[in-house]
Backbone:
């Protein structure tokens, strides 16, 4: 019932907007009726004649059927999984080549064929009235046809998903503008002949250049081809395709309309001068006029393209507009007087996998916005739909290192691998920035803005990376063991100068930001040098973790690891007293006295924070120490709206984090919690309880069930990250030149109780989540934006902070997604069932083992040796039975998975085929019913005036 209500509301909204759009058109017709009665009479005559003739409905049915077929029949529509008209947008000009001449062929040719043209020209009306009336009639016919297509296609889309009404209407407004322009061109063809067939053919021939000039690069050199291509319908339609109403595109189509209508005026007025004494001279005069008008029209179109007086993104989700920060950045670059030309080249292969269709939309929309805002300072070349082995693909690889990437995707429920080219290159002067592959989760707008800033930025800020046991500057990562640097450092080098900092001696060099990861691993002298830097006022990002999961550093309360090798081990160095840093900042890591620990007052041990919340039920077996933070996690304010670092973040994952306690009382101190857990569903667990040791001495993470035995629930929320500012006394600031490390200056520190947020796992998951499997593609984490925002905020560089947090929400095909979600839930249930069966098996076997052991113990007649032998045989037998049963359960589970996947694929096929059939068969039915009614109505009227005796 709720889905029906949503569909009905969406349909009413669409019809309401249509009505608001039609009201000005009706008012315009009223003005024409008052001031141009002959033109209105011609309009009314032609409009009624078209819709009282069943033949007109044949073309209307054909148009509606073609648009529905083009929108929903191609396999790419369901592969893209988007509730939009992308497939129709690609072929719309071709469909218009068929439908528009069908409307215009009879506009004047029919009058000449029936000999009514002379009669029409003798009425008290000037040539403008005739041309205007004919054109408005054709425009009204096309508008009605477009409304039929719009409503039928929207009905299909709202049954498949929740389409973006703004994007949908933007597309159809573009169709309307394209149609109006081609109608004016087709009218010229109709004025040249008295034959309807010839009028249709000429209409196609005259409209074709506006369509095929889009492929001018195939015939002409690249520079000329691109220049000509900008005058094509396809090029000017690109803004409408992405839901943008732009000044340049509207002016282009209006210029075509005005120019062609003037040419129609010349043709219809030919009778006044063609037969006279100066007929040939007048003909040449009008040819010069038309050529001059064409040149003026082209100039106006070029001027409009370079002077974007307005660009309005009408999509509901703001899909096709840049953020205010991005617009400001592009404008600053474009307004710089000493800025070199910025060249942008994008390379996109054809037949993209489903997960990259949204990315393509976002990329093209963002690039066009940059081009529009940048004006003459930006040169944009988009190679869209290229072949993997084409000249453009070779250019991308040779010049920029943009290569084919293998991507796993799902096609109608089946997993497959596909090669993709999807990269962008920026150049300005000698500077170059290349995005070799726009991964599925990579934020398009941020990557483009960061690359733009990289090639135009003359001087970079500096980040000092403190050397600790976390080995942040060490090479390699989880998914790229051969990488020269960790992904975090690679990412930071795109924006900052990175300097390695050693704390063995006093740190005298100044940095814009200092990054200190696991400072608890420092020795006492090293820690003292870090404290001096913090007191000196250097903005510092500190990441400290009681349980580093993805880094080699020891936990906060754990001793440093020894050096040397297995034959000559070295004793580990003594860790410094990290409590000195906490005292300086006025914080503590949540700890428990009496558990024992290193570097904690009173021998306390820092605790790991857990939270019983998971936004992904299919991952329910994950430990509670995988702390998910979302606005729905139970916290009063999970992400601080006060800080630009965390505001508007949606989801983060912390791995075995610690908690921060605010212990400061200084009035000149600010403690802003950035990330907070829920209160009723969280607690703590000791470090040692997180691990289990195998008989071979290997330490492994304990399972969720085992961990729950030691988890202590609390009633308070835990702060996982905080921004701490401490203002120095005014007397110290006034005497800043004489200030020392002991006297101090303003302290500016962001403290995060988890160093795993810096792991390459999160950076690589953001760039290429398909590497980690389909399961991870749903996570959409904000860990990377959070980390980068910390460093940018400390560096007082806010250019990218808001851009990183922006997310585009595309409307997907919910009908197909529901089937996929059901299959995922079924797989999760099957996994849980198999896990429970195995637990039951272990319980039963353990029970039998205990029972047999009791029997052996109570057997007084059996010797100790015999009991040991019996016990060994019994344990081996039970172990073999467990292994065999486990293999059987694994096979059954895998078989069940295949059954679920096959069933899902079959259901998806069925849904797709059903909607394809409905999309093609249902839309033509309404106009067909009207056509049948018109046929019988006319037939009945004709029979009324005929005597009954003459009827057969």
Residues:
């Amino acid at each position: 019932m709720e889905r029906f209500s949503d569909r009905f509301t969406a349909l009413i909204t669409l019809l309401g907007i249509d009505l608001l759009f039609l009201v000005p058109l009706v008012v315009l017709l009223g003005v024409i009726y008052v001031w141009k009665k002959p033109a209105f009479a011609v309009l009314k005559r032609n409009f009624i004649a078209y819709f009282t003739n069943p033949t007109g409905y044949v073309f209307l049915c054909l148009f509606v059927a073609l648009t529905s077929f083009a929108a929903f029949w191609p396999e790419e529509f369901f592969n893209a999984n988007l509730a939009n008209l992308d497939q129709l947008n690609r072929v719309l000009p071709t469909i218009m080549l068929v439908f528009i001449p069908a409307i215009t062929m009879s506009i004047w040719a029919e009058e000449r064929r029936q000999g009514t043209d002379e009669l029409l020209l003798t009425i008290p009306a000037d040539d403008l009235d005739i041309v205007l009336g004919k054109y408005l009639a054709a425009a009204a016919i096309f508008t009605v046809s477009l409304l039929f297509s719009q409503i039928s296609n929207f009905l299909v889309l709202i049954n498949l998903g929740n389409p973006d009404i703004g994007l949908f209407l933007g597309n159809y407004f573009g169709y309307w503008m394209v149609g109006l322009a081609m109608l004016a061109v087709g009218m010229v063809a109709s004025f040249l002949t008295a034959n309807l067939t010839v009028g249709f053919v000429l209409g196609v021939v005259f409209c074709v250049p506006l369509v095929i000039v889009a492929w001018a690069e195939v015939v002409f050199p690249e520079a000329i081809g691109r220049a000509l291509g900008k005058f094509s319908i396809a090029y000017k339609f690109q803004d409408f395709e992405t839901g943008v109403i732009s000044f340049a595109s509207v002016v282009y189509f209006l210029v075509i309309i005005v120019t062609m209508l003037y040419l129609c005026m010349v043709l219809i007025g030919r009778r006044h001068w063609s037969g006279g004494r100066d007929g040939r001279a007048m003909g040449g005069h009008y040819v010069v006029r038309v050529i001059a008008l064409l040149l003026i029209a082209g100039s106006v179109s070029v001027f409009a393209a370079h002077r974007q007086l307005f660009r309005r993104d009408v999509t509901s989700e703001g899909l096709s507009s840049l953020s205010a920060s991005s617009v400001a950045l592009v404008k600053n670059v474009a307004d710089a007087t000493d800025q070199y030309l910025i060249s942008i080249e994008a390379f996109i292969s054809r037949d993209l996998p489903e997960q990259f269709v949204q990315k393509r939309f976002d990329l093209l929309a963002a690039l066009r916005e940059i081009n529009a805002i940048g004006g003459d300072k930006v040169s944009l070349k988009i190679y869209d739909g290229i072949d993997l082995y084409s000249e453009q693909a070779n250019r991308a690889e040779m010049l920029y290192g943009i290569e084919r990437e293998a991507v796993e995707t799902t096609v109608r429920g089946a997993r497959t691998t596909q090669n993709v080219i999807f990269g962008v290159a920026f150049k300005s002067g000698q500077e170059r920035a290349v995005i070799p592959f726009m991964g599925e989760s990579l934020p398009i707008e941020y990557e483009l803005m960061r690359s733009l800033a990289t090639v135009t930025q003359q001087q970079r800020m500096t980040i000092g990376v403190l050397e600790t046991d976390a080995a942040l500057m060490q090479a390699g990562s989880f998914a790229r063991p051969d990488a020269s640097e960790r992904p975090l450092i690679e990412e930071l080098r795109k924006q900052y100068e990175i300097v390695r900092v050693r704390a063995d001696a006093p740190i005298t060099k100044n940095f814009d930001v200092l990054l200190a990861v696991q400072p608890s691993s420092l020795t006492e002298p090293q820690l003292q040098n870090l404290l001096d830097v913090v007191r000196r006022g250097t903005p510092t990002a500190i990441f400290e973790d009681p349980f580093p999961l993805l880094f080699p550093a020891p936990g906060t309360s754990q001793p440093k690891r020894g050096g040397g090798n297995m034959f000559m081990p070295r004793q580990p160095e003594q860790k410094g007293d990290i409590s000195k840093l906490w005292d300086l900042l006025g914080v503590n890591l949540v700890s428990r006295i009496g558990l024992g620990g290193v570097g904690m007052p009173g021998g306390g041990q820092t605790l790991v924070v857990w939270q019983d919340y998971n936004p992904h039920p299919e991952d329910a077996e994950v430990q509670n120490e995988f702390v998910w933070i979302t606005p729905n996690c139970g916290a009063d304010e999970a992400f601080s709206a006060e800080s630009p670092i965390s505001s508007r973040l949606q989801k983060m994952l912390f791995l075995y984090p610690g908690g921060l306690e605010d212990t400061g009382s200084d009035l000149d101190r600010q403690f802003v919690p950035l990330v907070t857990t829920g209160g009723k569903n969280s607690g703590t667990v000791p470090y040692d309880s997180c691990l289990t040791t195998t008989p071979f001495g290997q330490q492994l993470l304990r399972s969720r069930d085992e961990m729950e035995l030691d988890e202590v629930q609390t009633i308070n929320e835990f702060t996982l990250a905080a921004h701490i500012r401490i203002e120095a006394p005014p007397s110290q600031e006034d005497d800043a030149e004489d200030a020392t490390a002991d006297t101090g200056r303003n302290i500016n520190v962001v403290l995060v109780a988890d160093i795993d947020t810096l792991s390459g796992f999160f950076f690589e998951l953001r760039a290429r989540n398909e590497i980690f499997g389909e399961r991870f593609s749903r996570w959409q984490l904000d860990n990377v934006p959070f980390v980068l925002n910390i460093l940018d905020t400390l560096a007082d560089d806010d250019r990218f902070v808001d851009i990183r947090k922006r997310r585009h929400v595309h409307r997907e095909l919910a009908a197909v997604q529901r089937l996929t979600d059901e299959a995922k839930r079924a797989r999760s249930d099957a996994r849980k069932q198999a896990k429970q069966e195995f637990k039951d098996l272990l319980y039963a076997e353990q029970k039998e083992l205990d029972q047999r052991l009791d029997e052996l113990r109570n057997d007084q007649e059996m010797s100790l040796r015999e009991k040991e032998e019996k016990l060994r045989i019994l344990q081996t037998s039970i172990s073999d039975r467990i292994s065999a049963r486990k293999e059987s359960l694994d096979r059954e589970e895998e078989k069940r998975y295949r059954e679920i996947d096959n069933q899902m694929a079959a259901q998806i096929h069925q849904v797709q085929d059903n909607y394809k059939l409905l999309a093609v068969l249902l839309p033509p039915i309404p106009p067909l019913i009207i056509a049948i009614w018109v046929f019988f109505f006319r037939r009945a009227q004709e029979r009324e005036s005929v005597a009954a005796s003459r009827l057969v």
Observations:
- The CA atoms of residues 82 and 812 lie 4 Å apart.
- The longest strand covers residues 378-386.
